Amino acid sequence: MEIKIVRQVLEWNEDCNEELKALFKKKKVFVLNVMGSPGAGKTSLITKMIESMKDKYSIAVIEADIEGKIDAEKINSMGIPVVQLHTGGACHIEAMSIKNIVPEFDLNKIDVMIIENIGNLVCPAEFKIGEDIRIVVLSVPEGDDKVEKYPLMFSTSECLVVNKYDMLKYFDFKYDRVASDAKEINPKINIFPVSSSNGDGVDEFVKWLESEIDKKYKS
Q1: What is the Cα–Cα distance from 139 to 156, expressed in whole angstroms?
Q2: What is the structure's pLDDT at 91?
C-alpha cells in the first residue's frame, strides 16, 4: 500500500509539472531549479546570477525554506520580485506548490524564474517542478564523495556548480573525482567550478546559462 501511495504522489506531481511547463512555455519564461545541501551557497550563487543577468533579462525568484525569510530578503534588497515559499517541514518542493504560488507573479513581465529548492540532496531530485534546467550546487567543504552517495540528484541535473572553489586549498577535495563521477552517471552534465564569494568562474557559468535561455526563447 505504501508503494502505491508513493507512486500516486509522483504521478500527481508529474501531471502538475506538465501543466507548469505548458504555462511557462506559453509565457516564454525560462525556469531554473537550483538544488543543493544547506550551506552549499545556493543563495550566494543566485545573487551572482542576478547581478550578471539582470540587465539582459527580467528575473523573478521563488525562495523555498522550511522556515524564515532571510534569503528572500536578500533577493528583495536587489529589487527583484521574490516570493517566499514555506514548506513547514517538507524536505522538497512539489509542482503543486509552484502552481499555487505562480499567480503572485506577472509572467508576462518575466523572462527567467529562479527557484531555490530546499537544502537537500535527496528528495528534490524526485520531483520536477516545471523547470527547464536543474542546477545542483555542491560546495568544496561538503566533500568529494557526494556524487557517489547521491547519484539521482546528479544524474537528473543539466548542470553541476562546484561552489566555494576558492577554498580548495583548505580541504581534501578532489575536483577530478567529482567531475569523473558526475560524467560517469550523466555524460551530458555541464560542470563549472565557481566561487560565489569572489566571482571566479561565474562569467563562464552565466555565459552557458544565457546560451541555454536564448536557445529556447530568444532565437
Answers
A1: 18
A2: 77
